[in-house]
Structure to design on (449 residues):
């Protein structure tokens, strides 16, 4: 017993080091598994507040860019409206009316929240963003995050006022996507090399792809609605008619993301419950 | 004594804020962000290795991890760096040069302080990137990132030592 105590006493520094290193490695391993809820994250009050302050300061420098982006989106939405009936011309009020009526009758499937990215990472192998909206506003984990150009990521950890977003530039983000013109499905993945390029995996051999083809979200998962733009095919390799490598260039410049939209799927819980039931049958 | 404690606390908080507000957004050449926060390990008084030093290094790394969503990567690396600080110093310096009470990098020979600093920085950065990538097939990327980021960090550490320590 005496010897044991003196052993611990002599090696107390090493044992203390060993204990702390074990804790650090535990957090590291936890951060590499997708489904574990993580203790170390930036969606807490302290980190959130600091990032928010820095972001408020940066806003002054980026106002012009943000205005341009909003103006562009306005033009796009107005054009879309014009195609589907239009604002101008005869019978305008009637059409507007009917749009609203049908809206309230048909059940709304998705709800969009506006959020601001207050911290953005894009040069690590597992990148996360932090947004200034949280469970107090109705955000939950596993919701789609997009902007008008295309996909950004999926919400992960949500606190009262902040949430972390698993970026598409993250090795554990596997998002279901498809070819826009042929409905062949694949999985989006990232090889950590370049923040402008992502990879498309599991594309079936039947799919005919050309450089420049558009890729959109597949809608097979409950997170992303179908048809959100992702990127275009930049380059691909084919060996024995199997696609070995397909590089996409993202529509979004992930190094500068400002305001984003977070999508809540109202049907999600119902579908999950159904799937659970049928699995138990 | 209390002055030393206050200095340590200010250094601790100052380095975290500097790291997360400014240095993590530099993105030199697209991906190089210096990790100047390791300066804490160099500035902490060199006495016998104690629990406080190990724990503060661990905590500093963990605080950086909270901001970066990186699990315990920086905590593990900074703690390891703190633990091997003394062995590395002992390895580089001769017994006669070793003075526990007032070892200041400013007073050492330039080549010796650079070798101590660069060995510790490279080990720290290598652990950070290895744990961050967490796979073996990116070994070349990890080495490249370690060296480039290490050089950037080393330059900033040397500048900080020149500016913030008194020459006597």
């Amino acid at each position: 017993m005496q010897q044991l105590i003196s052993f611990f006493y002599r090696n107390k520094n090493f044992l203390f080091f060993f204990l702390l290193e074990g804790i650090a490695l535990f957090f590291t391993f936890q951060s590499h598994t997708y489904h574990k809820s993580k203790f170390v994250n930036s969606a807490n009050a302290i980190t959130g507040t600091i990032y928010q302050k820095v972001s408020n300061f940066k806003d002054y420098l980026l106002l012009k860019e943000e205005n341009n982006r909003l103006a562009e989106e306005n033009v796009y939405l107005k054009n879309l409206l014009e195609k589907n009936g239009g604002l101008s011309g005869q019978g305008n009020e009637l059409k507007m009316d009917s749009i609203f009526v049908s809206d309230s009758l048909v059940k709304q499937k998705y709800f969009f929240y506006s959020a601001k990215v207050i911290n953005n990472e894009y040069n690590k192998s597992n990148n996360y963003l932090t947004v200034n909206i949280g469970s107090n506003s109705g955000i939950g984990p596993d919701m789609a995050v997009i902007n008008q150009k295309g996909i950004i990521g999926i919400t992960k950890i949500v606190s009262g006022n902040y949430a972390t977003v698993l970026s598409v530039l993250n090795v554990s983000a596997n998002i279901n996507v498809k070819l826009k013109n042929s409905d062949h499905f694949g999985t989006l993945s990232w090889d950590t090399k370049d923040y402008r390029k992502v990879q498309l995996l599991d594309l079936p051999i039947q799919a005919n792809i050309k450089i420049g083809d558009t890729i959109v979200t597949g809608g097979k998962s409950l997170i992303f609605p179908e048809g959100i733009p992702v990127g275009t095919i930049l380059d691909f390799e084919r060996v024995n008619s199997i696609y070995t490598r397909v590089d996409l260039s993202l529509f979004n410049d992930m190094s500068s993301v400002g305001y984003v939209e977070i999508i809540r799927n109202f049907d999600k819980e119902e579908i999950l419950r159904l799937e659970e039931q049928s699995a138990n049958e | 004594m209390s002055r030393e404690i206050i200095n340590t606390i200010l250094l601790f908080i100052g380095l975290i804020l500097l790291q997360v507000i400014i240095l993590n957004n530099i993105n030199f050449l697209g991906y190089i962000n210096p990790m100047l926060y390791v300066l804490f390990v160099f500035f902490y008084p060199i006495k016998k290795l104690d629990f406080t030093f190990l724990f503060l290094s661990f905590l500093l790394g963990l605080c950086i991890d909270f901001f970066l969503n990186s699990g315990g990567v920086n905590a593990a690396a900074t703690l390891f760096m703190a633990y091997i600080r003394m062995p590395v110093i002992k390895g580089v310096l001769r017994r006669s040069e070793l003075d526990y009470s007032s070892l200041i990098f400013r007073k050492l020979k330039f080549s010796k302080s650079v070798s101590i600093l660069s060995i510790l920085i490279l080990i720290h950065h290598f652990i950070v990137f290895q744990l961050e990538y967490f796979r073996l097939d990116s070994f070349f990327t990890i080495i490249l990132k370690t060296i480039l980021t290490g050089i950037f960090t080393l330059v900033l550490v040397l500048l900080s030592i020149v500016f913030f320590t008194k020459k006597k």
Summary: Chain B touches chain A through 35 residues (CB under 8 Å). Chain B has a mean pLDDT of 86. DSSP finds seven helices and no strands in chain B.
